[in-house]
Design brief:
Blueprint: E1 5-7, E2 13-15, E3 19-22, E4 28-30, E5 37-40, E6 61-63, E7 83-85, H1 88-94, E8 97-98, H2 104-118, H3 126-137, E9 153-156, E10 165-168, E11 171-176, E12 179-182, E13 189-192, E14 198-201, H4 205-212
Parallel strand pairs: 6-8
Antiparallel strand pairs: 1-2, 3-4, 5-6, 5-7, 9-14, 10-11, 10-14, 11-12, 12-13
């Protein structure tokens, strides 16, 4: 994707960052920080390599940054567009799930966790998970900034597992054992201990079920427990 250069004070020209960093709402931001994971929600660019879509299709996955030496272009038409997440808690909150190819153990653990929560013996298929998450993350609609309204739900804070992201006055907060951390593209910031009561939950119910039943999200080092 072409970008206007930014002149620095000491004469070096630096490009603007691509609009491919994902926040916990699932929105795409132009930020310079690097994340722990990449991901996929279809081809988001047009023939001129300009970012024009929020998503394409129901397949929203979380991938490792490097796999078997494969290389993927950042903004190629008719090819999936790589997105980047601070950590897995952000990716789950945004509505993604582990990839079944490059993250097979995490994918299997996620599926088994969902199956346990639903009381079924056979783990959901990838397509079933995709449909479940699609119904939980966004109201109908499509746009560059957002694809419809972001769906949330309510639960007792004490019932939510480690790795869930909630909302407090519009701010995404990560739930950790007896601690809450506020999201930033460079890391999580400790905000204090838990408080009792109902909260708005950003992480889709399917992913919370997985977290409650054996699946563990990989978190950024800034979210260390206290």
């Amino acid at each position: 994707m072409a970008h206007e250069p930014v002149p620095l004070s000491f004469g070096i020209i630096a490009p603007l960052p691509r609009r491919n960093r994902v926040d916990p709402f699932g929105d795409l931001q132009a930020r310079p920080e690097r994340g722990m994971f990449t991901g996929n929600r279809g081809c988001l660019v047009d023939e001129a390599n300009a970012m024009v879509r929020h998503h394409q299709g129901r397949l929203w996955i979380i991938c490792v940054l490097s796999y078997k030496g494969w290389k993927s272009p950042l903004d190629q038409p008719r090819h999936w567009t790589p997105l980047f997440f601070l950590d897995e808690a952000v990716a789950l909150a945004a509505g993604h799930r582990p990839c079944g190819l490059c993250r097979r153990p995490a994918y299997d653990s996620y599926r088994k966790g969902v199956a346990r929560a639903l009381g079924i013996e056979e783990s959901p298929t990838a397509d079933q998970l995709n449909r479940m998450l699609a119904a939980e993350r966004l109201a109908p609609g499509r746009g560059m900034e957002r694809a419809g309204d972001r769906l949330t739900w309510h639960a007792d804070l004490a019932s939510l597992p480690d790795g869930t992201v909630i909302l407090a006055e519009g701010r995404p907060l990560l739930v950790r054992p007896n601690a809450l951390y506020e999201f930033g593209f460079g890391g999580w910031t400790y905000t204090g201990p838990h408080e009792d009561g109902k909260v708005a939950v950003l992480t889709p119910p399917t992913s919370v079920r997985a977290l409650q039943n054996g699946f563990s999200a990989v978190l950024h080092q800034s979210a260390s427990t206290r």
